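Changelog note: in this version the structure field was regenerated for every chain. One regenerated record is shown below for reference.
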Amino acid sequence: MDYSIRVNKIKFLLLVNLFLVVSCSVHEKTISSDDLIYEVILGDYFTEDTLTLRLNNKIIFNEVILRSRGSMGVTGKWLKVKKGSNNFFSITSDSAEKEQVEINSSDDFIETILNNNHQIFKIKKRKGKYILISKDELGKISIAQSVKRPIFD
């Protein structure tokens, strides 16, 4: 009798443990269900520059003033594009609001107007989802894509 009670307790504990593992797994998938498509970071050498940035003709930043921080070199401005359950949406450093955006991986582009200088960059999905936008020594926008997220010292 003692043995069957122990076996039943062990079965019960295993069942509870399995339930907890499955619950945590489902909860984790729910939290991370928004897949990252692009992350755009505005980086180095901006000094009181005015920028308008569009993603596929949708205005993301409109005439924002950019200042790169000395220690890390980035502006603190960023854009994340994620895939939700039914659509794509963007979140920016300026707003926690989700904005719907149109994404077509083969034709996506970023359009910038920096201090009245207009440039368009075609996003190449195979080069990575992390996009770093900086200003070069000539005052023009430079863009780099990477499979790995850039690290700033």
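Spot check on this record: Residues 24-33 have pLDDT under 50 and may be disordered. The longest strand covers residues 58-67.
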